[in-house]
Design a protein that fits this description.
By secondary structure, the chain is α+β, with helices and mostly antiparallel strands. Helices cover 31% and strands 21% of the residues.
Amino acid sequence: MATPVHNTASNSLWPSLPVTAWQDTYATLHLWTQIVGKIRLALTPKLNHWWHSTLYVTSRGLTTSAIPYQTRLFQIDFDFLDHNLRIETSDGATRNIPLVSRSVADFHQEIIGTLHELGIAVQIWTMPQEIADPIRFEQDHQHATYDPEYAQRLWQILLQTHRVMTVFRSRFIGKASPVHFFWGSFDLAVTRFSGRLAPEHPGGVPHMADWVTREAYSHEVSSCGFWPGGGTVAEPIFYAYAYPGPEGFRDYVIQPAEAFYSPDLQEFVLPYAALQQAIDPDAMLLAFFQTTYEAAADLAHWDRAALEPTNQ
């Protein structure tokens, strides 16, 4: 069992997580979550908007939640406190795979082999998704870094964001997604729906099949989330967008003052650093989520009276 990390910075509520400080661990962990997510995707009955594929934040890390297999259930959990990947089945079997620096190919081989030992046969598409220059999991010996401190910092941020997002989600009685983690784009998100169909998405999202995007955005949405950053975005951000984006969306006045519309990302952005410096981070984040939702809902004429509880 790995020794839990006890570091003042990493154990703060909103720890530092610059991309350059953990980019090798980030890349490896991203691919590990894709392997686990694809196992869930392969065995879970399909749900609208790909909700059957996501992971969920737990009090120790990330989980697939219960996955059906024949007459049994099993689940796979990332534990970022003890740094184990834990597999549990409904017939009482448990296996732990240490989270240590190891290649994606090695991780893939061990998890598939462990499932086979548990009587669970699963085939996944081993090509990573939403990643530039992908390498098949079984051939990837390049990505092999795991820094437990930075994995734990990521989880701590996801934990706090999940907590605030859950409050935000409770303030809506229309159709809404769970607060869930997308392993393809590696972000935590929650989405509200107007109840209306959306125009067919034009596709063209880098490293994503157009038919996947069109299913995800089949209905009108306002979505917000947290992303650790990547590429030209060197720091974590909170984001919010609408599809379809109503006229005037980018010019809508939102809160807090530190938030802005990014033409490059085509969404509103609240820098994570601004939240770290806030006197009341929860209030700042809720204001960002709420005002960007209002930008989408008001400009697109959502029936807010029917979609929002009267006692909030």
